[in-house]
Specification:
The chain has 13 helices and 21 strands. The protein is α+β, with helices and mostly antiparallel strands. The strands form 4 sheets. Strands 1, 2, 6, 7, 8, 9, 19 and 20 form an 8-stranded mixed β-sheet that branches. Strands 3-5-4-13-14-15-11-17 form an 8-stranded mixed β-sheet, with helices on both faces. Helix 2 packs parallel to helix 9, helix 9 packs antiparallel against helix 10 and helix 11 crosses helix 12. The chain is globular, with a radius of gyration of 21 Å.
Length: 410
């Protein structure tokens, strides 16, 4: 298909979304839904994804209540999600000095491969044109939109086909390069925190993850965070019975341990856990995690999801920010002028994502100090007021969102 892009892709579209992760797929779905609701016409929305499809991603696989609310507002029902995952009911933080148990409500544990595929199918059902294995590069401002080059991923010899999009939504993730060819690319480049961890992830076919009593520490509905020197590892059991592993870890810890698996085994054993089953032979890695762009919008250009900035999340905040942000950006792209969409998106992102990321950043920094994490565990376990505060923070990050937007009113 991509060898003949010129015959597949229209010369112009209203909205081009780059990246079919949660943020991108939801943005395309929202743009198409709102366009159809306002005009009754088939939307001109294109969703380009550089990877072959379907694909898995390094991810904690937890979706908070706010993200589910955003999906429900777009017609993705909770029943659709339940078929692919199960309710997220608790979080457990483990360290050498103890553990913290926190109740959660409103969220789900769901495989990224299954969720992303569900969202892309929903977008296609609303009229979105989906192009997997397609690399997109934003080239320049063009007339009243943006000129973008599209070509088959991995084909360095292919000449790109060009398309003009009135609005481009960039959701190409941590390692995306779709903006590198712009003259203002340096201004848009994310700033990476100098002490940032890298991400590691895999799916393990483990029958049980046993604590000191021999009980399974990762039952359905619980996310477990194992903390220690050099990083932390999140565990959640998927609908298939496998265990999703998602870690944020210092690159020096991996080097010192000799391999990613050895580094993560150290976090598990240091948290008092053992596994029943073999370690995955291969683990996927990411670029350095913690980063932020100073600019997330220009007229007709909106940067959303992990591409806009990333802070290590814990109980589904990352996917929730992506779902809510994608819905908002798609709605703005379909209903506002390019200038107004950019101004509105920058304001919304600051008030709804950056503000919550600050909380996660504080938690992340605390978990990097083993003694501090152990002390926090003892305090939360023994002081009622401290536990109440911890429960409140967890609830604020995972609770359903009741924010009313123009999208919900469409």
């Amino acid at each position: 298909m991509l060898s003949a892009l010129a015959s597949v892709v229209p010369a112009e579209v209203d909205v081009l979304v780059i990246g079919a992760g949660v943020a991108g797929a939801v943005a395309a779905l929202a743009a198409a839904s709102v366009h159809r609701a306002h005009t009754g016409a088939r939307p001109r929305v294109l969703l380009a994804e550089r990877s072959t499809w379907p694909r898995e991603k390094v991810c904690g696989c937890c979706l908070g209540g706010g993200g589910i609310s955003a999906l429900e507002s777009l017609g993705v029902s909770r029943d659709n999600l339940r078929e692919l995952g199960h309710a997220l009911t608790s979080a457990q933080i483990r360290c050498s000095g103890g553990l913290i148990n926190l109740p959660l409500s409103g969220g789900m544990v769901i495989s990224r491969g299954a969720l992303d595929s569900l969202l892309v199918r929903a977008a296609e059902a609303r009229g979105v044109q989906f192009l997997p294995a397609c690399q997109a590069r934003v080239l320049m401002r063009w007339a009243d939109g943006w000129r973008v080059g599209l070509k088959a991923s991995g084909d360095s010899q292919a000449k790109p086909s060009h398309i003009c999009a009135k609005t481009v939504i960039v959701a190409d993730g941590l390692g995306g390069h779709s903006l590198d060819d712009l003259e203002c690319a340096e201004m848009l480049r994310p700033r990476i925190w100098r002490r940032s961890y890298m991400g590691l992830g895999a799916t393990a076919q483990w029958g049980a993850v046993c604590d000191a009593s021999g009980s399974d520490a990762v039952p359905n509905g619980r996310v477990v965070l194992c903390t220690g020197a050099g990083g932390y590892l999140g565990l959640a059991r998927l609908r298939s019975g496998a265990v999703d592993l998602a870690a944020a870890i210092d690159t020096r810890a991996v080097k010192d341990a000799g391999s990613p698996q050895a580094a993560l085994l150290g976090l598990l054993s240091g948290s008092g856990l053992t596994v029943n089953g073999a370690w995955p032979a291969r683990m996927a890695g990411t670029a350095l995690l913690t980063r932020r762009r100073q600019t997330v919008a220009m007229p007709g250009l909106l940067i959303v999801g992990d591409a806009a900035g990333y802070v290590e999340p814990f109980t589904g905040e990352g996917m929730t920010w992506a779902a809510r942000g994608g819905a908002q950006a798609g709605m703005l792209a379909a209903t506002c002028t390019p200038q107004l969409a950019a101004e509105s998106w920058a304001q919304w992102h600051k008030g709804n994502v950056i503000s919550q990321q600050r909380t996660c950043r504080v938690i992340a920094r605390g978990l990097r100090v083993s003694a501090l994490a152990s002390a926090a565990a003892r305090v939360v376990s023994s002081v009622p007021a401290a536990r109440k505060l911890a429960v409140r923070i967890a609830a604020s990050l995972s609770a359903p969102s009741r924010e009313l937007t123009r999208l919900e009113l469409a």
